[in-house]
Amino acid sequence: MFVNLFSYLLMINFSLLTYNHIFDSFILHFLYFHHYLRKENFIMGFGINNRLSRIIKPKTGKTVMLAVDHGYFQGPTTGLRDLKKTVTPLIPHTDCLFITRGMVRNCIDPRSDVSVCLRVSGGPSILGELSNEDITTSLEEAIRLNAAGVGMSIFVGAPNEDRTIANLGRLVSEAERYGMPVLAVTAIGREMARDARYLSLACRIAAEIGARFVKTYYCEDFYKVVEGCPVPIVMAGGKKIPEMDALQMTANAIKEGASGVDMGRNIFQSDNPVGMIKAIRAIVHKGATVDEAFEIYSKK
């Protein structure tokens, strides 16, 4: 009787173990399929690549972005005092606007056929420590505004570099969940050298943290910056310089591997903004020479 009872209990225990094993296996498989095979993960690759294709044009692999986000720390800077008036005639020649949510809402016609990369960082004004930035705009807001991407600055070598880089990591983690590409802007402090060694460091860090594309400045040996960064680089225009110089800088950057430009002051502060953006576009998308581009710019 004792043996029969022991055998019975052993059989029940074995059955429970088998049942628990099957149940645990079922739960594990359910969680796997729920996480990896749910609908949004099936389309995630499509979503992020589709958004990127609205910024970097697949036909050429290049982009002409128009940076008009300067007011987030500079206020009504020269050329953007009336942002709507300045930007409206440039939109037909622009692949993507880099802009803040406030200016999108108030100054951009929602019927415009242009993509938006939304600046989502800010905090200090030009009067304070520029590296003291945080995330100021949510991913939900970017999605509501139909943004094709979001962008923020990192300040490598500045007092708050660790926080801005950590902010980039958190932004990337959240953005990837929604299939939203992140642009990292390698902001330069007042006393930092814009050389290949520094820019290579900043761009590589941005890519390592997960940015899908990076905005940085042109420099001597720019190709070294591109070689060290596995994601597309778009060239920042920087301060206003003579038009011929800006066109030459654009041509050099494209020749050395840039995937386009995100230019602002060298376009909207030009004496012929529409001609200038057409000229930049001719270099970036059509491979025009600097002389050919300057001729385009010169036509009023």
Task: Characterize the structure shown.
This protein folds into 2 domains: 2-37; 44-298, TIM Barrel (Alpha-Beta Barrel). It contains 13 helices and 10 strands. 50% of the residues lie in helices and 14% in strands. The model is unreliable at 8-12, 14-19 and 21-43 (pLDDT under 50). It is globular, with a radius of gyration of 25 Å. It has 300 residues and is of the alpha/beta class.
Helix percent reads 40-55%
CATH level 1 name of the largest domain: Alpha Beta
Mean pLDDT: 88
Please give the number of β-strands.
10
Number of contiguous helices: 13
Proper CATH architecture of the largest domain: Alpha-Beta Barrel
In total, how many domains does the architecture comprise? 2
- Taken as a percent bin, the fraction of beta residues is 5-15%
Summed up:
The protein is α/β, with parallel strands linked by helices.
Q: What is the topology?
A:
Elements: H1 2-36, H2 39-55, E1 63-67, H3 71-74, H4 83-87, E2 96-99, H5 101-107, E3 115-119, E4 121-122, E5 134-135, H6 139-144, E6 149-154, H7 161-177, E7 182-186, H8 196-209, E8 213-217, H9 222-227, E9 233-236, H10 243-255, E10 260-263, H11 265-268, H12 273-286, H13 290-298
Parallel strand pairs: 1-2, 1-10, 2-3, 3-6, 6-7, 7-8, 8-9, 9-10
Antiparallel strand pairs: 4-5
Helix pairs in contact: 10-12, 10-13, 12-13
